[in-house]
Structures are given as structure tokens and as C-alpha cells.
Amino acid sequence: MAVKQYPVIWLQGAGCTGCSVSVLNAVSPRIQNLLLDEVVPGHQLSLMFHATIMGGQGEPVIKVLKDTAKDRKGGYILVVEGAIPTGEGGAYGSIGERDGKHLTIQQSVEELGKNALLTIALGTCAAYGGIPAAEPNPTLCKGVATVFNEKGIGTVVVNIPGCPPHPEWFTGTVSVILFSGAEALDLDNLGRPKLFYGQLIHENCPRRAAFDKGKFAEKLGDPGCLYKLGCKGHYTNADCPLRQWNNGVSWCIKAGSPCLGCVEPEFPDGTSPLYEKITFEELKCARK
Amino acid sequence: MRKKIKIDPITRIEGHLAVEAVIDDGVVKDAKTAGTLFRGFEIILRGRDPRDANRLTQRICGVCPTAHATASAFCIDEAFGLAGKIPDNGKLIRALIFGANFLQSHILHFYHLAALDYVDAVGTVGDLAPFVPRYEGDYRVTGKANAELVNHYIKALDIRRKCQEMLSIFGGKMPHNVAIVPGGVTEGPTEDKITNFLWRLNEIRDFINNTYIPDVIAVAKAYSDYFEIGKGCRRLLSYGGFDLPSGKLFKAGVVSPDLKSEVFAKENITEDLKHSWYADSDSGKNPAQGQTQPELKKEKAYSFLKSPRYKGDVCEVGPLARMVSNYVQGDAKVKELVDSLLGQLGAGVDALFSVLGRHAARALEAKLVADSMVDWLEALKPGEPIIVESKIPEQGEGAGLTEAPRGAVGHWMTVKDRKIDRYQVITPTAWNASPRDDKNQPGAVEQAILGTKVGDIDNPCELVRIVRAFDPCLACSVHLLSAKADKLGVFRVV
């Protein structure tokens, strides 16, 4: 049986590479399986461009972008990590040089987005702007879907937010695409797969019993529910308590830290001060 | 013959950086390094709750976030009047979290960022993306030895992941740990966590001792000319790092080109802006007074990095700086490690100032940190305090200086009306990859590139090897421009 290849172009915008590092932490499949093996029998990714991993540099790798967009039009997956700086015509960030000129992040995301099978906005920066887009948003950063809307680019955007996202939210989304096709992805109204973002942290939190009994931690390091210390788990949609992080070793609340709400579009402005209680009503006001 | 070559992007480094060089008769005559991404963290932090800086500044870098978490925690500790009050458990757990990140960063750097310049992955796995396209021509390890190095590339993917898993025992998650906070940490030591951490650490130590260090030596033997390439400015700077109840693992110090060590004082740091896209009016200030005002229409500017200088001098930071600083200050463990390695390679201390010297220093440092972590684990006291309570002061000032995997990192903050009034960060890569300063002195990487012989201008592997040996924390592009090229205008963004 012929193996179906899905070329992947992975662009890094205004971000910290943390989403890439998180995907390197994937356990099953591991990163080497994603790179070298059939992730799903008969289906394989082919990572054509990733600035942190790829062997080459310079003009030849910029050519890879052009060639893939042309030769595999409509057949490649575009992954965007980091926000899109749109201030000063995109001058605040470039990914390389083409024809003697800066190839800005904005330009490359728009060009490659147009002809992609679908686009994965990986991480909160790519999905909703995240920290680079926080007030006063000095470089006018935007999420991928916003840029696509403004430019009339119709390619489907799947948001996998998180600062960083859990590696399994990425590998799991890829699995749906490879097994059942992109149309099988069931997304919520913020563009996130319900498979991973369908429940509140609060619903599955191991400190929920303490909340129900009114046992609240008064200072960091205390046992009890972290609500008064700024935990945003009661309106944050992610399966961290069930999945846990880094091969199931721990996660934020288990380590005594309030949930920062990092998968939500309001992160970080709407969920700050991070260590202060912010009610859902207050957040909704901020949303307007 | 003067020839124009451009490489952009460099790849296999963190972030966005550009390097331009003028090449003449096969020798680099001029070089410029330029940061090509600006996010404006310092502007975004203004007016926020000071505690949030600790979480937000980690997001400067996903490869070494705990370096920023640590620098920021020190900075806030000082501004909140907590410095000197952090419980021993808090210090040790901060160091263990940070140490685990050091190990993952160093292993990632050698195998996954740098090694593909020396190891022929294509020879083993075939013409497969993302290993092609690549520079061709200078892969000197062949056959079984090469296949073994490629296997280690794959194995190192697992080991670096396990460093992150070990880290999250106390740190909660990685990237972007949650446990390092002002006043201490949020996760305490229990006997089961200590043992769990120890045995993960032992597997990593085994890899460092029996795979990583031998692989660096194997590469060094095959590419021994790289002990002569990329000397750099030879002035080294370390802020000192890993603050333990017993003192610092890495000593602070400034080492001159003739290997004399001088006491470090943070007041001697200034940042020049003449060649950076920021307002000139802020040039030459200490970061405690510095500002960040972007100014894209500056004729001489070519980088988003500022130019940090120590007493006006260019300094290199990183594992080489730390190892040599500890070495010349007579640290017994470091002396033994360095002398033993130099003995195996038949080289003197001078050879450390090179591409291979930087890789070797990094590998030895991984061993030093990993071995020390065993002692830190044993010093933990289950049940004892991990954090002191803190209150945001009406006003305050703090500086947090430490050592990231890539070198000296510093955070400076002023608090006014319980909010951040000013926040300034100097990253290690600002030291290493800075543009020219107000006196037109080239930065550390620029100096390391200057004078380099480029064998094949279509495959200038010498230059990317030099740049990557510094482990820059930005995605990078190198531009080699002809001496006749009218302008280095390609990087002028407006």
C-alpha cells in the first residue's frame, strides 16, 4: 500500500520556540516517530521546513517554501507557531530573505496559508496573539485566523492554544486529520478541537473537593483550592488535570500553582494579574 | 576576489538573528550580526503586577525559560525585600529545576542544533526532509562511527525529553515551569519525589558521561582544525549562577584575554544603541536606568539587539566563559574536568577559545551541573519551608543576575505604586550577538567570524559552525556581502 505523505511547513513567528520544544516532549508517538515513521499506518508527515530542526539554511530552505507551495498546492499542512507581527508592514519580524528582501512573517504566513490543506495555529500566540499581542501590543501582533479573515484567506484554521500547548493536543489533532480527515475535527467556537478543550480544568481538578468544602489556600505553598490565589481553572477549557504534563509527571495545579488560563484568548491580559482572583463575570466584561 | 554570498535564515538556533559578512579572497573582512524579531517584552511588562513578570518573562524563550524564571525571581526577591530570606529548600529546588533545564538545553544544543554540521545524517537515514537540503562537502565521520552518532542524535531526543520530565517533578510542567516564584517555590520535596528525581538524573548522567562527552571528543578529533577557528574577543564574563545555601556553583568574574580574573560588579554594565533600532537618547545607560523605545528609521542601525558592554569592553558569555572563569579562579572540580579533557585532546587552555572549545566547555559543564545536582537533592529537607510570604511593596528596585545555559542573563525592575514601572532584560545572546557599539567595536560573534577562511563560498559551513557554537538564542540569518556591495541595505526594515 502506498504511504500517503503530508508535507508540513512549520513557521515560527513572534514566539519563543516553546511550542516546538513542547512537541519535542511528545511521548507516544515520540518526535522521532513524527519525523521518520508512519504516524498512522499508511499516513506519514514530512517535515519540509522547521527552522529549529532542519539540516539546511539560507536560500535553499527558502526555496523549499516556494516549491512546496507550488508542487503540493492544497496538499500540505501549515503549522504556525508564534503571533504575526503586522505593525510597520510586518517589519518587526522576518523568517529569512528572498530575492534580496526580507521575507516577513506576515507575508510568509499569508502566502503559504492560501494554498494549504489546512493551517494549525499552534500555541496561544498563533491562535489568538498571546503575550506578544498583550497591551500595548507594540508590534501589532495578531493570531493566524484574524490575519486570514482580514485578507480573505479561506483556509481552515485549527487552533491548538496553550502556552505552550500539550504535545498530545498537537499529535492528537494530527491523528484525527490522518485517520479521519480534517473535516472530522470537531471544533468549539474558538476554533479548538473539543477532544482536548471540551471540559473545564475545574471539572476535573484534584483540588475540586477542597473547593466544594470551602478549603482555600491563603498563600502559595498551602494545600487547598487555589481559587483565591488567582486560579483561572473555573473558566479555562483544557484537559490538563486528566492528561497531566511531561509524560504524566505533573501539571500546574499539582505543583501548587494556580492555572494561568493560558489556553484562553484572554491570556495574558484578561487573566492578569495572574495571582489575583478574577471572576468569570469580570473576564466576560474584559471580553467585550 | 570579492564575492557576494547570502545565507538567510541560518536555522537550528533559537529565535531570529541575521549575520552579514563582507568576504574578500576567501577571508571574512567584515561581519554584522542582527536580531530580526522584536516583540517588546519590556514595553508589555510596564504597568503590570510585578509578580507576573516571573511568569511572563519565561516566555521570552521556550528553550531556556527557567533562566528567565530564575533571573526574574531574584529580581523580584530583591525588589520585595526577600533576598536573603529564601529557605534552603527553596534555593535548592529552584536550582534543581534550573539544572534540569540546563541539561536538556546543552544536550539539545549539541545533538539537535549543532551536530548536523558535523554528522552526516543523510548518509544514514537517506535524502529525507528535514535533513535535506543542507550544505554539502565537509562531513568527515563515515561508516559505522557516523551511524553511531546518528543513533545518538535519536537517543538524545529521548534524553532531553527525560530532562524535561525530571524537571516537572518540582517544576509542574515544561516548557514554562510554574513552581519558581518570588520568595521560593510552590512545590515541596518529599522522599518519593527526591528518589524519583535522582534515578531520572542518574540515567541522564550516564548519557552525559558515556555518550555526550565521548561524542564531543570524537567530533573534536575529526575536526581538530576547529580548535583554531572562531577565537572571538577572548574577554569573558560570568555573572555567577546556581545560588545554593553553600554559595554559587558558577563563580562570577571577568576574565581578560591574558586570563586574569577581575571581580564582577553589575554597575559596570552599559548598553549602547547606536547600531540598534532604538532611540539613541537611551544609549550608554546601565540597565537599571535603561529604556526600550523602538526607532526603525535609524540609518546606522542594523539589529533589534542592543550592545551590552562591560566597562566599555565586548565580552563573550556562555559555558566557555563560566568554565574558564572558574578555572582561572582555581575551582578544583572545574580544573580537574578541563585539564583531563585537554590532556585527552593534547591541547592547551588556549584551544578552548574556538568552535570546538565552546562545545567541549558545554559538555563538561553538563557533567559538572548533573553531578552537583545529586548533592543538591541530598541536601533537601522534606517538611521544611519552601517559600516565604511576600507582599508587593509600594515601590522598590531589584536586579536578578544569573547564568542561562547560553550565558549571563540579567533582569532589572523598578516598582512604583505596586506596579512595574520599568523592566529591562539583557539576554546572553545580546552579549554574544550584539551589533557594533557606539565606539564601533564589533560584538563577540562578529569578532569570532572576522578573519575566518571560507573554503567554499557556496557552502560556507565554517561560518554557521562558528555561529552555532555560541548557541545563540534567536533564529538566525547570515549575510555575506561583497566588499563592493553598495549597502548592507537588505536588513533595513523601513
Written account of the structure:
Chain A is 31% helix and 16% strand. Chain A has 288 residues and is an alpha/beta fold. Chain A folds into two domains: 4-194, 3-Layer(aba) Sandwich (Rossmann fold); 199-288, Cytochrome-c3 Hydrogenase, Chain A, domain 2 (Irregular), CATH 4.10.480.10. In chain A, strand 2 (38-40) and strand 3 (43-50) form a beta hairpin. Chain A starts with a strand and ends with a helix. The mean pLDDT of chain A is 95. Chain B is 38% helix and 17% strand. Chain B has 13 helices and 16 strands. In chain B, helix 3 (65-79) packs antiparallel against helix 4 (88-114). The longest helix of chain B has 32 residues, at 191-222. At the A-B interface, helix 1, helix 2, strand 3, helix 3 and strand 6 of A face helix 1, helix 2, helix 4, helix 5 and helix 6 of B.
Reading side by side through the largest sheet of chain A, how are the strands ordered? 2-3-1-4-8-10
> What number of structural domains do the residues of chain A give?
2
Task: Count every beta strand of chain A, where a strand is a DSSP E run of 2 or more residues.
Answer: 10
Q: Beta-strand level of the residues of chain B, as a percent range? A: 15-25%
Q: What is the level-2 CATH architecture name of chain B?
A: Orthogonal Bundle
Structural class of chain A: alpha/beta
Q: Separation of termini of chain A?
A: 52 Å
The second-level CATH architecture of the largest domain in chain A is 3-Layer(aba) Sandwich
Order of helices and strands of chain A: EHHEEHEEEEHEHEHEHHHHHH
Low-confidence stretches of chain A: none
Uncertain spans of chain B, ≥5 residues at pLDDT below 50? 475-494
Q: Compute the CA-based radius of gyration of chain A.
A: 20 Å
- Per the CATH scheme, the topology name of the largest domain in chain A is Rossmann fold
Question: Which band does the percent of strand residues of chain A land in?
Answer: 15-25%
